[in-house]
C-alpha cells in the first residue's frame, strides 16, 4: 500500500485550526491530534515536540530545518496514528530517524515499525 503525504498547517492557535493546502480546514477544539482528522499521510509541525526538544527531552530533537514534524500513519481503529518523524528511533542504533527533503516530500531512514504498521516514508510517500 502507498499513501501520498500532504502538508497540513496550523493557521490559528486559539482556537486551534488546521488547514490542508487545498483549503480544507479542521477545528481542533475537541479532538487530539487535530491533523489526524485529515487522515493518513497528513504531515504537520509538532509544536509541542519543538518545545520539548528545547527543554532537553531525550526523545525529541529538532530536524535539520529547525522544526519537529509528525506524520499520520495508516492505522486500525483504537490506535493513535501520529508518528514523530524527528523523534527517537525504535529501529536505529544511532538513536533518531534521519530526515531529508522538504515537507511534505520527506524521506526518513531507517524504516518505521509502529507495531500496527511497518513501512517507509520515501519522497513523501508512506510505503508498506
What percent strand? Answer: 35-45%
> Can you count the helices?
1
- State the end-to-end distance: 5 Å
For the record, the count of structural domains works out to: 1
Placed side by side, the strands forming the largest sheet appear as: 4-3-2-5-6-7
Mean pLDDT, as a whole number?
84
Stretches with pLDDT under 50, minimum 5 residues: none
Could you tell me the number of beta strands?
A: 11
Shape label: globular
Label the structural class.
mainly beta
Query: What is the H-and-E element order?
Result: EEEEEHEEEEEE
Q: Radius of gyration from the CA trace?
A: 14 Å
Helix content: under 10%
The description of the largest β-sheet is: 6 strands, mixed
Summary of the model, kept short:
By secondary structure, the protein is mainly beta. It has one helix spanning 47-54, and strands at 2-4, 6-13, 16-20, 25-27, 42-45, 69-72, 82-84, 98-100, 107-113, 118-122, 125-127. A hairpin with a 4-residue loop joins strand 3 (16-20) and strand 4.
Describe this protein with a few key phrases.
128 residues; mainly beta; 6-stranded mixed beta sheet; 5-stranded antiparallel beta sheet
Structural commentary:
By secondary structure, the chain is mainly beta. The chain has one domain. Helix content is 6%, strand content 38%. The protein contains one helix and eleven strands. The strands form two sheets. The protein has a six-stranded mixed sheet with strand order 4-3-2-5-6-7, with no helix packed on it. Strands 1-11-10-9-8 form a five-stranded antiparallel sheet, with no helix packed on it. Strand 9 and strand 10 form a beta hairpin. The longest helix has 8 residues. It is globular, with a radius of gyration of 14 Å. 29% of the residues are buried. The mean pLDDT is 84.
Amino acid at each position: 500500500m502507498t499513501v501520498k503525504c500532504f502538508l497540513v498547517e496550523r493557521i490559528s492557535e486559539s482556537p486551534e485550526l488546521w488547514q490542508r493546502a487545498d483549503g480544507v480546514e479542521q477545528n481542533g477544539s475537541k479532538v487530539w491530534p487535530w491533523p489526524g482528522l485529515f487522515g493518513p499521510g497528513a504531515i504537520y509541525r509538532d509544536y509541542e515536540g519543538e518545545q520539548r526538544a528545547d527543554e532537553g527531552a531525550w526523545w525529541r530533537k529538532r530536524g535539520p530545518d529547525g522544526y519537529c514534524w509528525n506524520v499520520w500513519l495508516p492505522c486500525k481503529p483504537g490506535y493513535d496514528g501520529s508518528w514523530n518523524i524527528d523523534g527517537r528511533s525504535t529501529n536505529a542504533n544511532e538513536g533518531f530517524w534521519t530526515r531529508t527533503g522538504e515537507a511534505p516530500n520527506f524521506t526518513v531512514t531507517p524504516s518505521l515499525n509502529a507495531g500496527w504498521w511497518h513501512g517507509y516514508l520515501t519522497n513523501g510517500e508512506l510505503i508498506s
